[in-house]
Specification:
- This protein has 102 residues and is of the alpha+beta class.
- 46% of the residues lie in helices and 21% in strands.
- It is built from three helices and four strands; from the N terminus they run H-E-E-H-E-E-H.
- It has a four-stranded antiparallel beta sheet, with helices on one face.
- Helix 2 (38-55) runs antiparallel to helix 3.
- The longest helix is centred in the C-terminal third of the chain and has 20 residues, at 82-101.
- The N and C termini lie far apart (29 Å).
């Protein structure tokens, strides 16, 4: 799953290298993506909600028609942890699954 221990700068850099769609924004990582249409965007959000609940780690999600923006940080740790990167990977999978079915 992932740890709630705050990552070092080197660990964050390495984790981001494996998630090219994500960018660092201070103590958070963020990604925006366009779904094929509004219903597809909502399906992605539902899939992400299920994964987030399973990890007990919940992202900030902004929905603007078919554009989704996810922001991840472990507030209790005051920065980024492996949970953020685990959820980012699952978000990427949800986005990929939806675009593959469209």
């Amino acid at each position: 799953m992932g740890s709630r221990d705050r990552l070092s700068e080197d660990e964050i850099t390495a984790a981001l290298a494996a998630l090219p769609q994500w960018t660092r924004e201070g103590g958070s990582i963020a990604r925006s993506a366009d779904a094929p249409d509004f219903p597809a965007a909502i399906r992605v959000v539902v899939a992400v909600a299920e994964q987030a609940e399973a990890l007990d780690h919940h992202p900030d999600i902004d929905i603007r028609w078919r554009t989704l923006r996810f922001v991840l940080s472990t507030h209790s740790a005051g920065g980024l942890t492996s949970l953020d990167f685990a959820l980012a990977g699952r978000i990427d999978e949800a986005l990929g699954a939806e675009s593959a079915t469209s």
